[in-house]
Amino acid sequence: MPLSTSAWRPDFFRYVVGRGVSTAGTALVNVVIAFAVLAADGDGLSVGLVLAGSVLTQTLLIPVGGVVADRVDRRTVVVLGNAALAAAHGTMGLLLLLAPERVAVWMFAAAAATTGAASAAVQPAFQGLIVQLVPPAALQHANASLRLVLNLARIAVPGLGAMLGAAFGHGQVLLAAAVAFGACCAVLAGLRVVTPPRAVGAVLTGAREGWEAFRSRPWMWGYALAGAVAVPLWLAGYQLLGPLVLAGRANGQAHWGWAVSVFSGGMVLGSLIALRWRPRRVMLACVLVQLVWPLPLAVLAAHPELRWLLAAMLVSGASLELAVVLYETAKQQQVPEELIGRVSSLSMFGETALVPLAYVLAGTVADRIGSTPVMWICCAGILAVTVALLPVRDVRRLRRLPAAGRGAAKVPERSMSEAD
How many CB atoms are closer than 10 A to CB 403? Predict the structure, then answer.
């Protein structure tokens, strides 16, 4: 790839390393948090409340985070946000290590709310940084390369975290996560990125500008609307009910850790495919590959034998990864750089708005009638909203931009999507 279109420049490399270690920290937390809450005398509802606390805080604050990401230095935002993540998880890790008998569920909920607020600031800034660091023609290659590295980190970390949690305790795993977030701060503090001059104005004015850019793109708000249903159903089934299904089985925690690692292996496979496959109708391809995403939920509901679960996780991970890369590339190409943080935050808001409710409802209903019926509902719901995107004209017609760059992003999408 010529230098002018190459993603792998020194600052992009630093960005990938920093984001990689932050992702490793998140993976460590995710693989033990449900088991840690259960070990603190929690039940399915308690796990749902803790997970919901993080997502609720993130959902409420992420529109503000998007405005901040488009108005101030994004490097500073991600460094401070990861420092907050290190502090929250480090505190919980120390409490579990030094006084585990005094740890209560409400402490996990408080830490979750803190991490949700930090994530609301970090995620839109991360999205904006990649657009600043990478030439427009290299965006799909950059997205696929970045997610390949992140998913490689996710392969080993969940299995390792599950084994460390079973052998040494959940506190040590959370302390390791805090170290990872601290390492991210150190790496990204040296990132050299030029922040162009920004218009200074009220938060509400900035939010309105982002909303206009978002609502004027039917393929984007349609996909976000489907995600507002699909993502909560997926997380309720995958992150909450999955551990509950396996918690009562021999080696259930270890099996879940390996299942999550295989899911990440599938995402690596999806990243490798995305490095080569560049469909012209990018959103149509995105939706079609997403149809097999909920397969692990069906397996967990029908027959959670480890070999079938691992196979389903592999296929599902590849499906989700391809969908993410294709959607992110479409968004980055179509949306001007100065609006990317706000538009990204609105997409994230839609995806997370109902997640807290899904966690609480799924945990409550699973405690009453069992996890299997709830898992089937989650699987069917994801399939239904994904299929519902196919009749949307702009989803079917939107085309990937040529190497000319992001300047074409300001051309109305309909003129491009209808061009044959």
Answer: 11
The pTM of the full predicted model, rounded to 2 decimals, is 0.70
Please report, in angstroms and rounded to a whole number, the separation of the first and last CA atoms in the chain.
28
Given its phi and psi angles, is residue 370 left (phi above 0), alpha (psi -120 to 50 degrees) or beta? left
142 close to 13: Cβ distance less than 8 angstroms: no
Q: Which residues lie below 8 Å from residue 400, measured CB to CB, with a gap of 6+?
A: 140, 278, 279, 280, 281, 282, 329, 330, 333
Instruction: Pull the structure tokens for residue 226.
Output: 């489907």
Q: For residue 405, what pLDDT is reported? A: 47
Tens of pLDDT, residues 21-53: 998 898 888 878 888 888 777 777 788 788 878
Q: Which residue's entry shows tokens 């909203």?
A: 385
Contact present, 233 and 386 (Cβ < 8 Å):
no
Quick check: helix, strand or coil at residue 178? helix
Angle, in degrees to the nearest 10, between helices 252-276 and 10-39:
160
For residue 401, the 8-state DSSP code is -
CA dihedral 138, 260, 22, 149 (to 10 degrees): -30
Measure the CA angle with vertex 160, ends 155 and 164; round to 5°.
160
Q: Please state which of the four CATH numbers 3.90.1150.10, 1.10.238.10, 1.25.40.10, 1.20.1250.20 is assigned to the domain occupying 3-192+202-417.
A: 1.20.1250.20
Place of tokens 């003129």: 415
Q: For residues 181 and 81, what is the distance between their CA atoms, to the nearest angstrom?
A: 9
Give the pair of three-digit tokens for residue 134: 């990478």
Assess whether pLDDT exceeds 50 at residue 1. no
